[in-house]
Amino acid sequence: MANLKKTMAMAMATTALGATLIAGGSFAIFTSSVQNTGNTFAAGELKIGLDKEDTNGAKYFTLENWAPGDSDIQRVVVTNKGSLELRYDLTLAVGGDLGTAILPDSHPIVIKAYSDADGNIPLTVTDRVLDVGDSETIYVKVEFPKDAGNEYQGKTGTASIKVDAEQTKNN
Amino acid sequence: MMKKKKLLITALSSVVLLCAAIGGGTYALFTSSAQNTGNTFASGTLSLSTHRNDVPVEGPMFYTNDSDAGRMGTGLWAPKDSHTRAMLIKNTGSLDAKLTDLIAKPEGTTQQQEDALAFGEQAVVTVAALATPNGVTLNADALNRVNEAADKLFKDLINGSRFSKALARSGQEAFAIAREAVLDWTYRVDNNGQTVEVSVSDAYVGSLKDLYNGGAGRDANLPNLILPAKKTMHLAYNVTFVDDAGLAFDNDAIQGKVVNFTFKNTFEQVKNN
Fold it and tell me: Which residues form the signal peptide (chain A) (predicted)?
């Protein structure tokens, strides 16, 4: 019995030694390293702006007492305020009663973009490229068609002007 | 055993990386947007209300007998009868309006309409738009006096020999003469202690039948008749039953007939028009 105990203890001791040997197997090697610190990566900024934005509260159009045949054209300045070249899409929308076809054959307010102040040359509203720091002036015209009917009397409407930009580089 | 586990772990991380690569495939571009919303538009209104210079103010301008519906009955019409009524049209909208059409429409059955047009051929209608300096509004008393004075003018004019002789030659000539005389007319009336000179800003003279014109009416052709928003236009409507002496029609043909007309005034917006 005492012999068996001794044998067990011996066996355990041997296993432990073996384990130590395995675990400590990679200690005794010389090492060295070199490093290069201070590498910097600065991401550019993509930022588009309008001369009148929701954030500054100014509006392009506030029109009262409109009659069919009335129209208004406003200057809109789009600026690349970031540090990367961008291209943008212009999205124009009208809403409310005056911007909706009340009847199937109604003529609601229409909104369009032009490149000239007189509203003669239609503007391409997609993929407009702007260099860093550049601005361009476009003209947005809203028009209450002359053939708008009496269903539009005493109504209101809204318009929104939106620019969505993305980087041109690698894209 | 250890190697297998390591391999498995590597395989798993590759799968995760691949997933990330697929999911992020369209994210990695910078975007920016700016917008201006809430631009507002409000349309104006063009609406009118009318009333007559009678008590009550609602109802037809011309009717036969006095009753609770009106105190200015014409009585039965006979040749040379002439009556003037005021129609007051208020622009209750927010846009300026202009008179574009004057229409007199015969009412009733086909037979009644034929009778009405027979009467219309023998009746001359004068519509005069009266104006006051700076658009001063006349009180009821002053309005009635102006109407009486205008009535006298129209009566004398249409029943006068000059008009009758011209009418025998040509309707157009007679109507032009009468219109000139109406346009030249002015009348001074006391209005709340102030003397106001009423003038005629424009006028139409023609046969009542012509004012129907198959339902198209007469293009008012009166460029001066602009009714600004919130203002009231005073139209003096006169109908004179013309004596057939020397003329092609016969008064007797419409004896005992009762006819009905609707007087309609069409307005349009002034702006962009």
Answer: 1-28
- Decide: B46 and B269 in contact? Cβ < 8 Å: yes
DSSP labels for A131-150?
-TT-EEEEEEEEE--TT--G
- B187 within some domain: yes
User: What range defines the domain where residue B97 resides?
Assistant: 54-269
Tokens of B181: 């005389």
A155 touches chain B (CB under 8 A): yes
pLDDT means over runs of 10, chain A (171 residues):
61 56 61 90 94 92 95 97 96 96 94 96 96 97 94 95 95 87
Residues B121-131 have pLDDT tens digits of: 999 999 999 99
Burial category of B257 from C-beta neighbours within 10 Å (exposed 0-12, middle 13-18, buried 19 and up): middle
Q: What radius of gyration do chain A's Cα atoms show?
A: 36
Burial of B109 (0-12, 13-18, 19+ CB in 10 A): exposed
Asked if residue B22 belongs to a domain, the reply is no
Interface check A47 vs B, CB under 8 A: yes
| Fold (CATH) for A48-167 | Immunoglobulin-like (2.60.40)
Please state the domain count of chain B. 1
Q: A69 to chain B: which residues are within 8 Å by CB?
A: 269, 271-273
Report cis status (omega within 30 of 0) of the bond before B56: yes
**Does residue B7 sit within a domain?**
no
Which of B33, B41, B44 has the CB atom closest to A165's CB atom? Answer: B33
Q: Exposed (0-12), middle (13-18) or buried (19+): which is B144, by Cβ within 10 Å?
A: middle
> Whose structure tokens read 């361009």?
A136
Best of A22, A41, A53, A66 to disrupt the B interface (most B CBs within 10 Å) is: A66
Those residues with Cβ within 8 angstroms of residue B64's Cβ, 6 or more apart along the chain or in another chain = B73, B74, B75, B76
Q: CA-CA distance, A97 to A81, in Å (whole number)?
A: 35
Does B4 map to a domain? no
